[in-house]
Every structure is written in structure tokens, then in C-alpha cells.
Amino acid sequence: MLIETLLFICLKNMPNPMPQSPQSLRTMYLQDPSTWTKPWVDKGIIWEEIGALPDTAPYPDSNPYSESKFKLGEKLFNDPLLSKSGQIACASCHDKELGFGDGRKVSYGHDRQLGERNAPSVAMSAFGVEKFWDGRAQTLEEQALMPIVDPKEMAYDPKKAAQRIAQIPAYKQAFKEAFGTETITPTLMAQAIATYERGLMPRNKQFDRFLKGSTKAMNDQEIQGLHLFRTKGRCMNCHNGVAFSDQSYHNLGLSFYGRKFEDLGRYNISKDPQDVGRFKTPSLRGVGQSKPYMHNGLFPHLRGVINSYNAGMFRPKPTNEQETDPLFPTTDPLLRPLNLTEEEIRALEAFLNTL
Amino acid sequence: MLIETLLFICLKNMPNPMPQSPQSLRTMYLQDPSTWTKPWVDKGIIWEEIGALPDTAPYPDSNPYSESKFKLGEKLFNDPLLSKSGQIACASCHDKELGFGDGRKVSYGHDRQLGERNAPSVAMSAFGVEKFWDGRAQTLEEQALMPIVDPKEMAYDPKKAAQRIAQIPAYKQAFKEAFGTETITPTLMAQAIATYERGLMPRNKQFDRFLKGSTKAMNDQEIQGLHLFRTKGRCMNCHNGVAFSDQSYHNLGLSFYGRKFEDLGRYNISKDPQDVGRFKTPSLRGVGQSKPYMHNGLFPHLRGVINSYNAGMFRPKPTNEQETDPLFPTTDPLLRPLNLTEEEIRALEAFLNTL
Asked: What is the three-class DSSP state of B122?
């Protein structure tokens, strides 16, 4: 009886073993997500199943979509006149050809000053609320003006930018079409830019097509990777939902606390000691096109990122002087060695490239 | 007798069949290049064996290396003061983090104007003579000043740039150390920049380490790719020597003759009708880090480049009106379908990534 009870408890708490054949995995993942193997997430983790993106991006009631607003936003997003020098556009660091990032560890801005963080892709702007690696903007509209003001980025004044583009008749006309007024204000500029960014949602990616029934959209290795993502890889603890992000903040041991390149992340905004070194969970949509990775662009390739997660990520030890420092950051306990084999790492990478 | 003769001719002209085992290929390629299987190159092709890069880059007598000149060149290469706006440096389009290119199909320049060609990597500047995709600069020193002048690139005047940096005491000091004079001239600026660029020669790459005896530096697939590069892939017809370039010009059928994005390439410089649509053979050193590919950045991935070569590249047909056009470009007859298998394509790609 004791043995039976123990066995029952063990079996109940043991994660589902991985189905053996590629065919059985394929069959399972072509069925409704409600029938999939339960993902391996830790107790207390609030998660949503991963799935196909909706056909149209979600837009807030406060700034609904219109085609004219989207087109105006695209024009503004690509216009270097929004910068003091007249040389730097939003698109300079969020380049369509570079996964809406800039391919660099950290970006260059006004007078070629180096920033401190990797330019995040704006391709999934429609999802989640808080923006920037530290979530310091509450909305996309608020975010859109902040790089214009930043002395290291576009180093300008949105009011002056508005005055500057108000000299251009085509802009007056475009604002009239989008907002019914020729009076160009920073608020309207931000609304147009945010409207454009929300529309950049990736489409027709392999993963989505597979979920919608295109059985050939993913090969066996990619499906194995999908299964590892949801199970042994433990990825869904943080990267869940259709955007593959919990929209929360985690510490991966990369804050360089007390060292060169120190970045306290979310703590700078919240002032909560628990937030030291925490950064926003980025969406994994389009991740294969948006290297390098992490808030500081530390990893040039996806393989390196996966290898580091496989090793359990970084756990900096406090020095003697840091032992009693209440701000010394703790790496998220969700991270632990994964024991993925070389083949499993490759499968996981292959899956990520389908997003 | 006839059969014997035919057989003799056939066998004599048949390229060496590929050795079967990975081990035999490994053994062969670890020996001196003079013992390697003869590469598959067409009659009349002047080629040099591929091989390890020298430890130091070749420098011309007219502008020999010195450390102070190299350091000054690095400073100038990264200085946006050389541009009219004070925002664009040489490094803007030749970014160390992006394989000394910019990761884009074509580059943005002054006032965010779009250029017409892909920014080539400058990492192999020390090799070959003529510069730019069309070879319009005779030396690297001549080349260095041309983007400063180009109204679509830095849009400035090298004399004004020299005057501007002459206001900075640290530059005066650096020129004195490098050239023995505080008088800053465009000629000296170009010499310093060229000195820096020549020193960017890639080092310690897998292929070179393998040739020098590190047997583990290349795996079996990469060695298979090396063999395919030299044989069935026919790559050495154009990409030969330690720089993996014949320093010549070829037509790959990508000139878009008579269409949008037409680019006549080498013809613009030579005015020789045979040069219509010909572009310089780029070095393949560091090719894995310098996407996208071709003079117009047409291919975002190496795989696509190899697939296109495998299909024999492009052979645009003249329209009725173009039938008698003496300028209608002809795709290089060196290009022909290769019949590489999927596995061979992967091996070739793996090899290219060792360079």
C-alpha cells in the first residue's frame, strides 16, 4: 500500500515522458493545443499556451488602427527629420532588414554616441504593455517619443520635430487624413508611429502555418524542438502565450553588478531591490532574425543563448564586501541546468527559427 | 584500339572522382597543398591554390605599416566628423560587429539617402588592388576618400574634413606620431585609414588552423565542403588564392539590364561592352559574417547563394528589341548547373563558414 501510494505520487508528479516517435509528436501538435502534453512549468507560474498569432494585431481603444494613420506612422518612423541632426530615424536602430533591430550589441545614436542596451525588435510592439528592456514606458505611444528626446539617441525635442515636419505640405495632408487636423503635435506623431509599429506583427511564419494545418510547414527536427521548448527546455516558464513572452522581468545573472557594464535593469524604474538585474522577457517571434541577443547583445548567435540556458545561465557570487549588500542580485531560480543533448539543442534552435 | 583510345581520352579528361571516405579527404587536406587533388577549373583559367593567410597583411612600399599610423587610421575610420553631418563614419557602413559591412542590402548615407550597392566587407582590404564592386579605385588610399566625397554617402569635402579635425589637439599629436607632421591633409588621412583597413585581415579562422595542423579545427562535413569547393562546386574558377578571389570581374546575370535596379557594374568604368553587368569577385574570407550577399545584397543567406550557383545562376534572355543590343550582358559561361545534392550544399555552406 505504501509502495503503491509512493508510486502513485511519483507518477502523478513526474512530467510526461517525451513521446518517442517524430510521428507521434507531429500528430499531437497538429491537434488542438488543449490536448497537448502539459508543459513543464514550475509551481505558481502563470502561463498561457503558445499558439498562432491572430490575423490582425490588437489595437487599443485609445488609438485604433486606420490605414492613413499606419502610413503616416511608417513615414515618420523612417524620417531622420525627427532627430536633431536630421540623420537618425527610428528605423536606424529598428531596421526592417535586421529584424527591426540593428544587428549590433548596443546602438549608435546622436554624434555616434554608444548606447547601453541592445535595440530590441519592434516587430511585436502590439503585444504586451510596458516597453523598453526595463519597462519604463507604460504604453507604446509614450515609448515612441522617448528615443527622440534621449540625448544619446536622437537628441531632439518632439515639439521642434513637430514644427520641423509641419513645414512639409505632404505631412500636413497626411495628418489631416489620419487625424482630421493639420496641427501636428508630438502626441499625434506618437499615435501614428505606434499604429505603424503595432502593424509590424510577423505573419505567415512556419510555426503558425503548421498550427493551422500545413503539416509540411515544420519538419521532424523542428517539431522535436517545439516539444523540447514546452517540456525539457523549460522555456515556457517565461516564454509563453502567442507572443512567447510572460511580459514580466527576470534576472539571468547578466547585470554585471558592481562591475564595468553594470546595468540594474528594472530596478532603475521600480526601486524594488528584488528587481536588480531583471530585464523584460522579450518575445521570441522573429528571434532568428534579430541577433545579437540579451539586453546587452552579449550573444551573437542563438546557439550560444541555448547553450547558456542549458548550463543554467549565470550565477554571480557576491564578493566578501557584497555578502551583506541588500541590492546584490539573485539569478532567477527558474533557471537550472537542463541536460539537453547536442541533438536536442539543435532541435530547439531549429524550432526557434520557425517563429 | 578505338575503344581503348576513347577510354584513355575519357579517363584522362575526367576530373578526379571524389575520394569516398571522410578520413581519406582529411588525410589529403592535411598534407601539403601541392599534393591535393587538382581543382576542377576550366581551361584557360589562371588560378592559385587556396591556403592559409599570411601572419601579417601585405603592405605596399608606398604606405608601409606603422603602429601609430594604424591607430590613427582606426580613429579616423570611426570618426563621424569626416562626414558633412558629423553623424556618419566609415564604420557606419563597415561595422566590425556586422562583418565590416552593415548587414543591409544597400546602405543608408547622408540625409538617409539609399545607396545602390551592398557595402562590401573591408576585412580583406590588404588583398587585391582595385576597390569597389566596379573597381573604380586603383588603390585603397584612393578608395578611402571616395565615400567622404560621395553625395549619397558622407557628402563632404576631404579638405574640409582635414580642417575640421585639425582643430582637435589629439589629432595633431597623432598625425605627428604617424607622419612626423602636424599638417593634416586628405592624402595623409587616406594613408592612415588604408593602413588600418589593411590590418583588419581575419585571423585564426578554422580553415587556416586546420591547414596549419589543428586536425580538430574542421569536422568531416567541413572537409567535404572544402573538397566540393575545389571540385564539383567549381568555385575555384573564380574564388581562388589565399583571399579566395581572382580579383577579376564576372557577370552572374544580376545586372537587371534594362529594368528597375539596372547596374552595369564594371562597364561604367571600363566602357568595354564585355564588362556590362560584371562585378568584382569578392573575397570569401569571413563570408559567414557578412550577409547579405552580391553587389545588390540580393541574398540574405549563404544557402540561397549556393542554391543559385547550383542552378547555374541567372541567364536573362534578351527581349525582341534587345536582340541586337551590343550591350546586352552575357552571363559568365563558367557558371553552369552543378547537380549538388542537398547534403553537398550543406557541406559547402559549412566549409564557407570556416573561412
From this structure: coil
